[in-house]
Amino acid sequence: MTIAPPATASIPAPPLGGPGLPQRRELVTEIPGPRSRELHARKLAAVPDGVGVSLPVYVEAAGGGVLRDVDGNTLIDFGSGIAVTGVGNSAPAVVEAVQQQVAAFTHTCFTITGYEGYVAVAEALNELTPGSFDKRTALFNSGAEAVENAIKIARHHTGKQAVVAFDHAYHGRTNLTMALTAKSMPYKSGFGPFAPEVYRAPLSYPYRDGGLSGAEAAANAITVLEKQIGAANLAALVIEPIQGEGGFIVPAPGFLAALLEWARANDVVFIADEVQTGFARTGAFFASEHEGIEPDLIVTAKGIAGGLPLSAVTGRADIMNSAHAGGLGGTYTGNPIACAAALATIESYRSEGLLERARELETVFRTELEALAAADPRIGDIRGRGAMLAIELVDPETGAPDAGLTARVIAASHAQGLVLLGCGTFGNVIRFLPPLTLSDELALDGLGVLRDALAAS
């Protein structure tokens, strides 16, 4: 008996993305359009409600500073997939590197048989990250996975168990990283119990902590570390040099350096979570450089591989080497396709002037945002570095966070073709994470959309 193969529908070739897409905002339907609404209905029937979609348009192509949806609308991208596509979506060098690697082999598992791409990425990160000391790098898949492994390494190295994160922190959605993350909804609520031996210390938050200096804020945090936990019990502290989901909070100068000095004096591993701040996002390769610090371990992901899943822990060789053979790894960690993408992405940051471009975008955004703030007292604060900026929206009379206004502004911006993201513990921060390939013209058009949305809200 012959069994016929199953019938398959023909799949059309995907539309071309990359920088060749016309770099302009263009709306041909309402947002979301009819095809996006159809796809969203299918999503609701196939995907659990817990997997949300902030802006339910469905993308068919992307590149430069724009996304084109299935209805033919072209939207300005102020999100970069949450700081992932810093080199632009479908960057030609990344596409070529991935295609070559796919044609060679897709997987072997590095912990079974090695390949050069993993080693080359590790070498690049050892060279690029702050610190003149001898380093080692281990590769993983996601930011949360890398944070979790950094803590594993720190615990093994120190023989201690306690870990400290900071107010407003976001470090991921796994059980351990949920414990590190501060914000309950939507990240933690109902998902406990969480991993033990995780503690929290106060952050330097210049807009809301009464103008404490970095040294004063660090002294408050160190009091918590010493009195509520004890250095003898503390394996690591983990901190974002600029907080991401917590609200793009930039600590006062000297805060991070004082914490690092205390950690070094007390055999505590200082872990910088640069998942969102890394890879040219802030106008330096890593945000730690702005503070002149050399963390013991640096966690990276997001912008590392042009959109492919890859993350890393890079740090002092003696700490990284302390874990026993076989203690680190995973089936897909440092997969060859993502490694090929990462090498092309890192070279793009180096050769295409993207650090300088991040600083140029900061000037464009700050100029417009400061003009908006001068006319609208609901903008309580403008903060960030490079192409990682934010505004905090408040009640101008009391300074209280205004989450309702923030939601209205974001919704109005979405309707006019601007991809805009919120964040913050209080839900009142709008963040700007454009691709570093965004043109000034697109930046100004998007900021005009924001201006109109604020005026209408």
From TrEMBL:
<dbReference type="InterPro" id="IPR015422">
    <property type="entry name" value="PyrdxlP-dep_Trfase_small"/>
</dbReference>
<protein>
    <recommendedName>
        <fullName>(S)-3-amino-2-methylpropionate transaminase</fullName>
        <ecNumber>2.6.1.19</ecNumber>
        <ecNumber>2.6.1.22</ecNumber>
    </recommendedName>
</protein>
<feature type="region of interest" description="Disordered">
    <location>
        <begin position="1"/>
        <end position="22"/>
    </location>
</feature>
<dbReference type="InterPro" id="IPR004632">
    <property type="entry name" value="4NH2But_aminotransferase_bac"/>
</dbReference>
<comment type="similarity">
    <text>Belongs to the class-III pyridoxal-phosphate-dependent aminotransferase family.</text>
</comment>
<keyword id="KW-0808">Transferase</keyword>
<feature type="compositionally biased region" description="Low complexity">
    <location>
        <begin position="1"/>
        <end position="11"/>
    </location>
</feature>
<dbReference type="InterPro" id="IPR050103">
    <property type="entry name" value="Class-III_PLP-dep_AT"/>
</dbReference>
<keyword id="KW-0663">Pyridoxal phosphate</keyword>
<comment type="pathway">
    <text>Amino-acid degradation; 4-aminobutanoate degradation.</text>
</comment>
<dbReference type="InterPro" id="IPR015424">
    <property type="entry name" value="PyrdxlP-dep_Trfase"/>
</dbReference>
<keyword id="KW-0032">Aminotransferase</keyword>
<dbReference type="InterPro" id="IPR005814">
    <property type="entry name" value="Aminotrans_3"/>
</dbReference>
<dbReference type="InterPro" id="IPR015421">
    <property type="entry name" value="PyrdxlP-dep_Trfase_major"/>
</dbReference>
<dbReference type="InterPro" id="IPR049704">
    <property type="entry name" value="Aminotrans_3_PPA_site"/>
</dbReference>
<dbReference type="Pfam" id="PF00202">
    <property type="entry name" value="Aminotran_3"/>
</dbReference>
